[in-house]
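Dear support,

Our group has been running a series of protein-ligand predictions, and this particular one with alpha-D-ribofuranose is the one our PI (initials K.S.) wants archived with full inputs and outputs. We had some confusion internally about which version of the output was final, so please treat the block below as the authoritative record. The input we submitted was:
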Amino acid sequence: MNTKKKIVVLGSANVDISARTPVFPRDGETVTGDTVLVSTGGKGTNQAVSAARAGAAVTMIARIGNDFFADIPAKLYERENIDTRFVTRDTEHGTGCALIEVHTGSGENRITVVPGANMAVTAADVAAAEEEIAAADILLTQRETHPDSIAAFLAAAKKHGKKVVLNPAPALPIPDEWYPMIDTITPNETEAEKYTGITVTDDESALRAAQIFADRGVRCVIITCGSKGVFCAEFEKDENGNTVPAFHARIATYRVQAVDTTGAGDSFNGALCTALAEGRTIVDACRFATTAATLSVTKAGAAESMATRAEIDEVYNRFYHSGKTITPMARKIAAEHHLFWRAIEGTGENGTVTEADVRRELKV
Ligand code: RIB
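Confirmed final output from the archive:
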């Protein structure tokens, strides 16, 4: 019997052409890069692969072209056991393509996307997958397919009482009527600012930004903050009908030497949905997903860089089930600096992390 949880992803498929370069070119400048990688990308496909490798059974709703690029995502779907019954070959538009520059020093990227067939995904494509949607444990989408398809997906989720996660990337307009149909929204800091006008710098500003999403109708807000981990907040109605935070938390993450940050947010979203579908709490799901995302930046590429369940579990168990302890003062300082104290050596009794250990790590 297949015990995997079922996720339906509506999203984009791209061919990513990424060049690694020690310096980003300025206008009119030519620079010399080192390696070039042609692989599968597109936020939707990256998230689908992340969810599948994290342990879910994934069905994809997407469009690819009828061109030679299309075989690149098509072969990946097959390798990753992603159900492609609702991936359409579009005869009028080419497969989406992203030109990516990756900085060899920082792993940071710059991306130009030509959407092609992604913007031809229709509400009818979503309607064709209605039975799958009705049978899913959770639904996931982004902002890289045609808005009509996203509206239809959200409406289908509501009709069938399914939780839907919207990763609002890239930060394109979201119609007001979409918000009440979204269970969880997952912007990064930049996107959170674009949608709410609040610059997210700390937990206080993150909560203010989250409150704006909640006032528009979203129940759970997760803001991904790169190396500063993630901020999550859940909202409820008080006795006067006001939308108030029920809970909020910051989940720090461990530091790594980034090779390529392309698709890190996608890794987070896919793994998050797998964990939520498995019934894990929001904090635990965020821990699992940040572990996946941090692992993904240590590898080149987007979809190909996603971590497997075994890789995620190994790191997750090492950090969260190690029984490591920390003193209250050390915890307070670590939290103020978003320091992932579970990864540092404790010199206190039985390896407890002390204030001195935290200060040594922070160099303060
Ligand atoms: O999030 C990273 C993705 O954005 C890349 O794979 C690229 O295709 C663009 O869609």
